[in-house]
């Protein structure tokens, strides 16, 4: 489950960021002052429209890496409009891009009559992206939608469940229901810290959900914010990852593993009281196109191996591969087939 958004992506300059009070590399929810920005982005010659949203990106990449038709499912809320129709086409493997081939077994979208499909402004400066999400219909997902028999059947069939932290702003009750189901049935439940503002302003909901998480993903900025709001007097990523992995857990069926990315610095994995680091695939600066979706792609690559019961080392290797592919392209996109062995 997640917030399906249509990415409106364009290269801008620092003056554009300043005009709309956007910090480089940040991810925030849109305020009133940001709303004119979407039309301005849409008017740019280099604008691209890409089906996105954090969880949807990760699931798309996992499906691409697996190359097994119908291995994944996804739920979210869209509007009854042209962008929503495009989202459904992509999910049904009939989109404009071959990369959507075999996307999902089921993409069950709850369609809202009153709100347009959500959008995310992707502002790219020097390859670094800043995200401003206008959730719109994505914010209208209802707990009742999850409980419909045809939708709950997807949850019951799933063996691995991943939800980005962004969904905490929309339907924490849905997350809680799924998390409790996973714990009761010994399934693997995973979440992402997603953004500093989630750690700061949705702490209570986040703590309730993370109690059930077997895997927790995040980047170094999110991890440090997570630590700061809890009064942990450290900015050491390895120490924070270890402490997150040792937080109270609702189910003892699986130990908790924390995975923290650090851009071009090594990936940190805390597992069973130990910390291990993994080098990333270094990319020459001239090959960097767009970091939008890099973290989502990392998770997708990781999931693609985890569901095949591969080792953590292999999961991280696949994660780094997927992220490396995506940052050399515009948006969270990829070639028709992966070249991963």
From TrEMBL:
Q: Which reaction does it catalyse?
A: adenosine + ATP = AMP + ADP + H(+)
Q: What Enzyme Commission number does this protein have?
A: 2.7.1.20
Q: Which residues form the active site?
A: 296
Q: Where is the signal peptide?
A: none
Q: Name one GO biological process term.
A: adenosine salvage
Cofactor names from the entry are: Mg(2+)
Note the coiled coil stretches, chain numbering: none
Query: Residues in domain Carbohydrate kinase PfkB?
Result: 16-335
Q: Name one GO cellular component term.
A: nucleus
| Annotated metabolic or biological route of this protein | Purine metabolism; AMP biosynthesis via salvage pathway; AMP from adenosine: step 1/1
Q: Which Gene3D superfamilies match?
A: 3.30.1110.10, 3.40.1190.20
Q: Which PROSITE patterns match?
A: PFKB_KINASES_2
Q: Name one Pfam family in it.
A: PfkB
Instruction: Enumerate the UniProt keywords alphabetically.
Output: ATP-binding, Host-virus interaction, Kinase, Magnesium, Nucleotide-binding, Purine salvage, Transferase
Q: Which domain of life is it from?
A: Eukaryota
Any one GO MF annotation of this record: adenosine kinase activity
Q: Which family does the record assign? A: Belongs to the carbohydrate kinase PfkB family.
Q: What does this protein do?
A: ATP dependent phosphorylation of adenosine and other related nucleoside analogs to monophosphate derivatives. Essential to sustain methyl recycling.
**Family annotation (PANTHER family):** ADENOSINE KINASE
Q: What is this protein called?
A: Adenosine kinase
What organism does the record attribute this protein to?
Answer: Leersia perrieri
Source taxonomy lineage?
Answer: Eukaryota, Viridiplantae, Streptophyta, Embryophyta, Tracheophyta
């Amino acid at each position: 489950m997640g917030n399906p958004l249509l990415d409106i992506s364009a290269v801008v300059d620092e003056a554009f960021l300043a005009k709309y009070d956007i910090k480089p590399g940040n991810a925030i929810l849109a305020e009133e002052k940001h709303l004119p920005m979407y039309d301005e982005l849409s008017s740019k010659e280099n604008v691209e429209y890409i089906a996105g949203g954090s969880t949807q990106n990760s699931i798309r990449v996992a499906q691409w890496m697996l190359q097994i038709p119908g291995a994944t499912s996804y739920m979210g809320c869209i509007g009854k409009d042209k962008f929503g129709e495009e989202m459904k086409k992509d999910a049904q493997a009939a989109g404009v891009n071959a990369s959507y081939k075999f996307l999902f077994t089921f993409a069950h979208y709850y369609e809202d009559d009153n709100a347009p499909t959500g959008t995310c402004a992707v502002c790219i400066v020097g390859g670094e992206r800043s995200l401003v999400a206008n959730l719109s219909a994505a914010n209208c997902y209802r707990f009742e939608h999850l409980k419909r028999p045809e939708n709950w059947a997807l949850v019951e069939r799933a063996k691995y469940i991943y939800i980005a932290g962004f969904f905490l702003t929309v339907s924490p009750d849905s997350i809680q229901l799924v998390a409790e189901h996973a714990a009761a049935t010994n399934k693997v439940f995973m979440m992402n810290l997603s953004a500093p503002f989630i750690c700061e302003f949705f702490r209570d909901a986040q703590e309730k959900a993370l109690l059930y998480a077997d895997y927790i993903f995040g980047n170094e900025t999110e991890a440090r914010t997570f630590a700061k709001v809890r009064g942990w007097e450290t900015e050491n990523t390895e120490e924070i990852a270890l402490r997150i992995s040792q937080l109270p857990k609702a189910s003892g069926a699986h130990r908790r593993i924390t995975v923290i990315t650090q851009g071009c610095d090594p990936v940190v994995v805390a597992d069973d009281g130990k910390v291990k680091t993994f080098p990333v695939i270094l990319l020459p600066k001239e090959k960097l196109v767009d970091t939008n979706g890099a973290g989502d792609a990392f998770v997708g690559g990781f999931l693609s191996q985890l569901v095949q019961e591969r080792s953590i080392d292999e999961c991280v290797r696949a994660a780094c591969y997927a992220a490396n592919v995506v940052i050399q392209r515009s948006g969270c996109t990829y070639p028709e087939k992966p070249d991963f062995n």
